[in-house]
Structures are given as C-alpha cells and as structure tokens.
DNA sequence: TCAAAAGTGTTGGGGGTACACCCATGT
DNA sequence: ACATGGGTGTACCCCCAACACTTTTGA
C-alpha cells in the first residue's frame, strides 16, 4: 500500500484522544488522576479517562488540548503524547484507535478541591482508579510508568505544583511519583545543583511551625542548563 | 464527546503505520535505514519510509509487522511503537494520521546487501536519508533520537547483529548509534558485567588478523538480571 | 617480520549514599 | 516549653573515566 493510492475508500477506524490528567494534593501525599463517569453504554456508570474524537481540522495535540480545556478549563499545562492504543477489540462499539496523552496540572493552585463539571468528574487516587471503562486501566498503568521514568531524567515535578513552592513540597511530589522515600539532604543538594530554581525572599504563611522558604522554577535557567548538557537525573 | 456516542458518523481520518527500519553494515560503521521509492504522486520519485494503511481487523502492532514482513520478508524482529504523527497537513491527499514504529534488523545476517523488492527499496545511511516524502524526515529524526536514548538504558544493540558476534562488533554498533567513540576496556567491562552474554567456544573465521571470540545474547540471563533490578545503563 | 586487531588492569577523582543534629516558629 | 517541620555537613565507598602495552594471527 505504502501511501501510494490517492483514493483510499476502505473503511476507516475512528480516532480518539484520551488524557491521563495527573495532579497532586499538597497535603495528602497522593498522586491523583482525573476521571469522568460515563452516562451512556457501553460501560455506563463506570469511570473513564476524559477524551474524545479527533476532528479533521485539528492536530492530535490540538485535540488533546481541546478536550483538556473542555474537561478541566485548564490551558497552558504540561501535555505530552504517551502511546497509541489500537487493539482491535478495545472498544465494543467498533474499531476506535486512541492516542493517549498525559498531562500534569497544578491541582492545589488552580483547581477547586472536588472539582466537577457538567459530566460527573472527580479526582481519584491513582491506586483507587481501577476497573475503568475500555482499556483505560491499561492506559493509566502505562502513564504512571512513563511518569515515573520521566521524572527521573527531566525536571517536571514543578508542573504539578503552584508557581511558588517549598523544597519539601517538591520532594513530596517526587516521592509520590516514584513511590519511594528520598533523603532530604541529598534531594535538596541535587535539585539545587541543577541551578534551575530561584530562591525567593518569601516564606510560607499560615503554617503552624517554622515557615519554609519558597522557590520558583526558572525556565530561562533551565534552558541554559539544558544547552550546557546538564542532565537532570535525580 | 468522551466516547459517549454510539454513533459516530463524522468523517474519519485515515490511519497508517510507517516503519523506520534500522540496520547496520558490520564493516562500514554506519547506521542504515530502509527506504522505498515512491512511484506515484504525491512526492513521486522521492524516498519514503515503508508503511501502509491499518486494516480494520488488525491491531496497530500487527499492521506494522505485516508491512514489515511485506517489505523486508523479515519476521520476529525487534519492533516498537515510536510516536504518532497527526499534523493536519502532513499528507497532501487528506487527513492521514500515522503511527510510526521503529525496527531493528540483523542486516548482516539475513538480508542480502543491496536488497530490493518489487518496489524500489534500498538501504541508506541515516545521514544521507534526507528530503524524504511527507514528514518522514521528521519521523526519522525522532526515531534516531529515541534509538540513541533507548540504547543507553536497555541492551538492544544485539538486535542489530547476527546471533553470534564479537564484542568489537557490538561496540561498533553502540558507537554508530551514539555517534561517539567508546573506550574499549570500559565497554567490555560494562557489557560483560550485565551478565547477559554467553562466551562461545568459537572464534571469527576468514579474518586476516587475530580472530576474536564470539558471543551470544542469552535472553534467559537477561530476564533474570532484569528481575533483579539490574539497570543496563551503558 | 610486519600489520592489524584482540585482549587485558590499575589508578584517581567525583558523585552518590548514608547518616544526626540544631534551628525557627506558633501554640 | 514543647511540638513540628526546616534546614544543614561530612565521610565513605563505589563506579566511572582515563590510560598503554602485550598477544595472536595471517599475509
């Protein structure tokens, strides 16, 4: 075949995008995922990843961003293609191929707790998010694995935090994603050695113990360090 | 949308797979890619990645394997999904989304030099493979980058070599992919420390200097080491 | 005997890991 | 004063990187 036919009149699969939207609660040390409850068959009443069909006049990335904006009202967030799932029987309605994306959102800052939109939507702990519709369990598992790997060699933890954060908060994000404890002193040494954070002259407020210094991610510094071949392996 | 409509009567994009087939010549130290010359518009006469449309009754992986078998007569080779390319205008004939795969083939062993099939097919040095049809330049670039990363933390160099190979050949594969020289002693120490190779009681033949010992990849050992959490970072 | 590649050990330095105590703040 | 988390330094060890010569074989 090799793209050589100008006409391609055979039946086509449908193409969708699904988004694995990750967030963290700053206090609970848990990785969360945004799910939507289905109100139609198949899988009626079950929870599923937000997603939808790709339109002919939009790229895959645009489709993912559009769906995400529709579901979460969030724009300008970290979004990356994950994998494309194309088993023949993954959707009982017919042949639907889905291009999965994963997104990191600054839950604490922008999204009200217990956010829901017109459709029933809710944040779930990733461990509670089981028995999802379609092959979404599988997609979620792949996304968690990818996130774990990614965080090991690129500094994306900030994407899950508000613009100003403490090093302890950042460490909690990493521990949550990696599912293991990190040594506080080593973590700080490492992160600060990347030279991509600005220490602010500001400290936590409304906290009932010694207030921690706030930091901000500096993307110019990050680009500079990346040019210089810095590798951000934790 | 969210997969909630049982009917989906909107126009659908076409879905294709394209394969970046990598190989190495054992003597020339160059990474090669298999290309096919187009004999129809658009991009008539230009070289392109082998690929074709996905059928409704086969998974994406199956489609990639089928195309690969059709193009190279090879089965049972290393194949992995790369990325899905879905820019609106990537194909002038209309909306065609392509799921790209990359494959590693044991060129020296199985494929005759200068292999071609009915369509004009040929191996190109990856550096000479430019001005390809569609967005295939871009796909190739992404594949090279992925291969470079992958080889750094998973031992896939063997996939490009015949079953029996010398350590120097293996090192050449790594150097070719990574595009940098490696220290011979350190390379051998590292590779052998993974404990995934069997040293054979066999040596090179028909070589006009001291013959090197042959090794074979042992996939049981590999699985064992992987269970034990061995990481294969070079 | 020469050419060409195979094969082999050691050392120094940097970075990762492990580890414990004092400090600042609010109640 | 006490409870709670914030913040800091050091020592050891392992692994990575750098480095050069001898051996084997065929021509």
Automatic annotation (TrEMBL), chains A, B:
Domain of life, source organism: Bacteria
Alphabetically ordered keywords of this record: Hydrolase
UniProt domain Nudix hydrolase: residue ranges: 10-146
GO molecular function, one term: hydrolase activity
One Pfam family this sequence matches: WHD_NrtR
Entry annotated with the keyword Membrane: no
Keyword presence, Hydrolase: yes
InterPro entries: NUDIX_hydrolase-like_dom_sf, NUDIX_hydrolase_CS, NUDIX_hydrolase_dom, WH-like_DNA-bd_sf, WH_DNA-bd_sf, WHD_NrtR
Signal peptide positions on this chain: none
Protein name: NUDIX hydrolase
Organism: Candidatus Entotheonella gemina
Lineage, uppermost ranks: Bacteria, Pseudomonadati, Nitrospinota/Tectimicrobiota group, Candidatus Tectimicrobiota, Candidatus Entotheonellia
């Amino acid at each position: 075949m090799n793209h050589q036919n100008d006409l391609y009149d055979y039946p086509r699969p449908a193409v969708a995008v699904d988004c694995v939207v990750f967030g963290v609660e700053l206090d609970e040390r848990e990785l969360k995922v945004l799910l939507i409850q289905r109100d139609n068959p198949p899988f009626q009443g079950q929870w599923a990843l937000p997603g939808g069909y790709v339109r002919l006049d939009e790229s895959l990335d645009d489709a993912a961003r559009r769906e995400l904006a529709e579901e979460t009202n969030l724009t300008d967030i970290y979004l990356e293609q994950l994998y494309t799932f194309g088993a023949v029987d993954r959707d009982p309605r017919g042949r639907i191929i889905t291009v999965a994306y994963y997104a990191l959102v600054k839950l604490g800052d922008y999204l009200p707790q217990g956010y829901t939109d017109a459709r029933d939507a809710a944040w779930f702990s990733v461990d509670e998010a089981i028995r999802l519709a379609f092959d979404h369990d599988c997609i979620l598992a792949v996304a968690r694995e990818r996130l774990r790997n990614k965080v090991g060699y690129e500094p994306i933890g900030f994407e899950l935090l508000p613009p100003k954060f403490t090093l302890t908060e950042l460490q909690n994000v990493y521990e949550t994603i990696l599912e293991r404890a990190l040594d506080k002193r080593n973590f700080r040494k490492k992160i600060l050695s990347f030279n991509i954070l600005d220490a602010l002259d500001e400290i936590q407020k409304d906290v009932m113990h010694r207030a921690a210094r706030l930091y901000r991610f500096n993307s110019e510094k990050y680009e500079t360090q990346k040019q210089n071949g810095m590798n951000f392996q934790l």
